[in-house]
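Build the 3D complex.
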Amino acid sequence: MNHDLIKILIKRFISSVLILFFLISFLFILLRIAPGDPTQRYISPGLSPQLAEKVKVSFNLDRSVQEQYLSFVKNFFSGDLGVSYSFHTSVTNVLFEFLPFTISFSLIAFFFQFSLGLLLAVFAYKNRSKKYLDGFISGTNMFLYAVPSFVSGVFLIYLFSVKLELLPSSGIKNITSVTSDFGELLFDYLTHLILPVICLALAGTPVYFKYFRDNIEQNYNKLYVRYLRSNGVTENVILYKHVIPNAISPIISYAGVDLGMLFSSVLITEVIFSLPGMGRLAVGAILDRDFPLVVGCALSAGTLMIITNFIADIIKFKIDKRLINGVLN
Amino acid sequence: MSLVKRVTILFFFTLITIFFGCKKTNPVEKNTVVIAIPADIERINPLYSFSFDEANINELLFLSLVKHSWDEKKGDLSTEPMLAVSWEWAKDSSSIIINIRNDVKWSDGAPLTIDDVIFSFDVYSDPEVQSYLYGTFKAFYTDKDNHIDIKKTFEKISDSKLKINFLPASSPSMYNLDFPIAPKHIYGKIKRKDLINAAENFHPVTSGAFMLEKWERNQSIILKESVSSFLHNTDGVARLAFKIIPEYASRLAQLKNNEIDLVEDIKPEDVKDLKISEKLQIVPVKGREYDYIGWNNIDPEKYSKEKRLVPNKLFGSSKVRRALSMAINRDEILKEYFAGGEYGSLANSPVSPIFKNAINPAITPYKYDLEQAKKLLAEDGWSDTNKDGIIEKKGEKFKFTLSVPTNKPRRLFAATLLKNSLKQIGIDFSIEQLEPGDFIEKLSKKSLNAWIAGWAVPLPLDLKISWYSDLNKTPMNFCSYQNKNVDLLLDEIEKRISNDQKNNLYKKLEEILYADQPVTFLFWIDNVVVYNKRIQNIDVNPLGVVHHCWKWSVK
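Done.
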């Protein structure tokens, strides 16, 4: 088993590095041939075109794309992603500054949408005889799924921050606070994260609800449930010990992809709530034509996507060991 | 315990946290003013104040030799002492002797001396450094790379007295001395070309009324009062927090919610709603920024391929450009986007109405007059000979592409209005929306035929950077306008003449630009500033909102 897992790990690692390398190579060339000049905003209006050209040279953008690419590949394999044009420090430093927030924020939102989807599905199934309740939950979920996050975000700010004045509307902490008390700081962070997490989780919850609801129903119709019932196993044991674990298994693959997507799609929430995460960083880098940082952001998004998928696969293997043979073959 | 039970417990635990987390939001702390800015700055180094916000923050952290204030009555800038306590010009303005304060210290305790002043001129003009002022020291003795010649320029008379010599034929002014002084004992230890990425740009040694307390990237920049500064105001603001809020709607919500104190560039359509709040003060600052429709005066293809200046087949004639200016109903845009003209005014030239003595009162806006526009086009030889609804001249149809940067609804609205009007006089064009980075690149390369953009007039007024004929000297002359009379006037303005003479020359210049219409000037846009009334002594003027904010106090 361990031997097989190591084989999978090596196989995945090699393919992942290749995928990431091709991804950023493609992006590197695309950025160079796309319109837009990163040096434009560093040129003062009074500077003549000849002097402005000197600024370009300092960015190494006077060299051909091939030369730039070769230098990039050499640096990439030595772990150097270059220096960000707008942060004036190495891209790796910038990524390490912003990545932890996005990972933790996305994980919290993911936990919410996953658990809320599961709870609602179980609740809806248990109350399936009450048609109005089941219909209400399904209808509300459909509505939430249809509402874009920029609408729900603005609505949450309007309701909880402007009207009720209950929660802060932006940032991850009170910027003027001078407290160093851990409890107060934690509380401050938590209160600032409530609205963004709700906003991000609202869109994902209906998807998980729908998946869980359908899978629970499908499992209840399977023969093993009849067998358990005929052996006198109680409904609660059937649901919690047998149906739900079986209903979760097929969703894990989707959850892996979803978490990866969440890491790179938190942009709107980050912008609305002024959060210092990777989404805002990536868009800022694109608009500023900060080429090294754009490549760095793409690399981190791709890496996170691959890691989450891999973790999802490991969990699936744990649940169903037959899948390992499938992957190896 | 089953999985669902565990999830349920965790979920409800989190809900309880949320419940107790809800409390009345914290308004801004007393004696701290929070200002919203849309984007983070890149570094805190006065040499690289490329953006407006960087310049504002550096002004608070680093002293300059002199400071300038906006004189509303004169409609011009006035010079006041700062680091320099007094100065004396030579009779022929070929030199100036300045006396600087001897009680100023950097935030690390080192004294600020004449050596820092000389070093600053040296480093700002060094081509290796590429500062935001590089190439602008035209009144100084420089080498062929525009680097100031220190020996020829500076004479250190004593520890607090410095003589600065200027080029014989130049026209120096106090504006040449108004830039933040850099710390020699810090920057002098760093290789010049490495200054742009130096670690010192993130924990700067400063000399101003404020010092950096904390900077969290993409979140906030917090400045605290510098108690030892001679500018320190005991009743003033103790902390100044710049909160980075990229979303306009979020900035508004937080302003209403007391989470922030001051927001600039409020859209006129939101003013009505903000007026309801008794705690907010609304101040429109008369425009320094205008929108215009650019007509490329030269053929973009010939210029990009052969670098030849050939008149544009469509927009090469001033008669045609005048006709185009008459074909847009600017009043309608003012009505739609500037609350009927309350927060904007029609523009006739690149001289803002804030320059009361330089503006030519005889010039009145071109009226929306399609018949007159048709007449002018006919006089220039344009007519619809083949009756297809599009006018032509020598086989060339009057068709073009108008480029507009994305995310500017006002400019898109103006483009749509223009399209409808021009159709009525037989001109057809398509509207192309370009991503801002792409738009600016094409504009710089002069490859656009027609476009709608904005321009902020520099203080002090400088029209040479955008209207002088020599395109190698004036890259901001995007429409490639060329007029020898304008060049003569601009050269004359640069000479050692009185302000009255300068203002008269500006008025003549406006007349020529008005007649030539190198671009169609649309409107001046007011900067609508909204702040919490708890901020006292605030002077909102064209120089900026946080200008001299050490004079503010908090109620």
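Residues 91-328 of chain A form a domain with the MetI-like fold fold (CATH 1.10.3720.10).
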